[in-house]
Write a structure and sequence with these properties.
- The protein is built from no helices and 7 strands.
- It has 117 residues and is an all-beta fold.
- The radius of gyration is 14 Å and the shape is globular.
- It starts with 11 loop residues before the first strand and ends with a strand.
Length: 117
């Protein structure tokens, strides 16, 4: 199936596309977002997942970004219950944190698998 990833608020996009496959309680997905303007949208959380994840949060995902707001040396994502949370590490940070990654013109790609309740 398809779903619509969103940063919420007044964010606008050049392109947004996302697909998923659900077999039993396992959901595999891919998403691509080219953000035209972030506006009042979130800079570190993507909503719109097709199904809520089970109570085991922080499912790891493969993630890639281009044009982030910070000087990112590491970038990854996890699945919370209903959102994809974006994390980064800069040269100055000791560990990854949910920093502001999104910016006008940034491209974000995420894929992963998680389980529903």
């Amino acid at each position: 199936g398809t779903w619509t990833p969103s940063l919420g608020g007044t964010a606008t996009y050049t392109t947004r596309q996302a697909t998923y496959t659900k077999i039993g309680n396992q959901v595999s997905f891919t998403m691509y977002m080219d953000i035209l303007a972030i506006g009042t949208g979130s800079s570190n959380a993507i909503t719109g997942l097709p199904f809520a994840a089970d109570s085991t949060s922080n499912w790891p995902c493969a993630a890639h970004n281009t044009g982030s707001a910070t000087s990112v040396t590491e970038f990854h994502a996890t699945i919370g219950t209903t959102t994809i949370v974006l994390y980064s590490r800069t040269a100055a940070s000791a560990s990854p944190s949910s920093n502001s990654i999104g910016a006008d013109g940034v491209i974000i790609e995420v894929s992963g698998t998680y389980f529903t309740a």
